[in-house]
Amino acid sequence: MTTTAKSPEAGVGAPRGVASTPAGTERVGRGAGERTPGRRSAGWLGFAPFGVYVLLFLAIPGVVAIASGFFDAEGRFTFANFATFADPTIRSNFLNSIWLSAISALISAVLGVLVCWALTAAKPDGLVRAVVDSASSVFAQFGGVMLAFAWIATIGQNALVPVVIKALTGVDINGNGPILYSIPGLLFPYVYFGLPLMVLSFMPAMDGLRPQWGEAVATLGGTRFHFWTRVGIPVLAPAFFGSLILLFANAFSSYATAAALISQGGIIPLAIKQQLTSETIVGVANTAGVLALGMVAIMAVLMSLYSVLDRRTRRWQR
Questions:
Q1: N or C of the chain: less Cβ packing under 10 Å?
Q2: Domain membership flag for residue 6
Q3: pLDDT of the residue at 11
Q4: Domain extent at residue 228
């Protein structure tokens, strides 16, 4: 029969013969997941290439571009470049960029919500979800000259779609000129890469809806309408508006596709290009920095709102 020691050091019920450890002197071993300072320092080395890339190709060019707006052609500090905001053409370009980005973002968001809603019926690890996720990742990054060529071949002046529509209905969608080579025509490529981006950004929020919430509503006597109006929509609203802001910012800053389709300008990214490459107006290159500053200010406000909404969204996804 084993007897137990009653000493305070050994503790109540400790078997005799087992070495006791005084209270407060226990040695806690280093956890398996705990990293030493040396390992943490080595971890930063893996981040170094990305940090150098951001510094050389984003941070420094951005600062130089914006700072150039505060200097004249002779390199003297001035605020005179800000007078470009009084130019009716520049104001029109800003308005065109805003409404084009807003409409394309809204169309992409609505269509994206419908796609995400349909995907909730598919298995999370099934073939349909895998194909849609992969396609969305590819199409969201498809842009530039290749995307412009694809749309020219689709709805250009002598493309297949306008010819078929005219043959079937007698309506010539390019009767007043090629629609694709205008500001409204940019809605087609902008929605093209905005829709998959909406699917990628909003689908996690749809997956975050708990089945238990619907069961709780049903237990309390609620209907499916009550679930969406009282639970589903309020929970998804921050994610929806956050994704909408992300789509707006993506369209607002797009340049390559618009430059391939529209050469005469009309939106702010193309206006900046004109200010930098103008051969008819001398001494306006530095005003491009002022226009870039205006874009950065708008993007900063949008990203601040997106950060707030993203935090609210993550609260329901924990």
A1: N
A2: no
A3: 43
A4: 87-316
Does residue 235 contact residue 227 with C-beta atoms inside 8 Å? Answer: no
Cα separation, 230 vs 276, in Å, equals 52
* Alpha helix ranges (H) inside 123-232: 127-139, 144-155, 160-169, 187-207, 211-219, 224-227
Q: What total of structural domains would you count in the chain?
A: 1
pTM over 0.90: no
Q: For the chain, which ranges sit under pLDDT 50?
A: 1-32
Give me the residues paired with residue 5 across strands: 14
Report if residue 30 sits inside a domain. Answer: no
Q: How many residues does the chain have?
A: 318
CATH number, domain of 196, equals: 1.10.3720.10
Q: Has residue 63 been placed in a domain?
A: no
- At 70-105, the pLDDT tens digits run 887 777 888 888 888 888 988 999 999 999 999 999
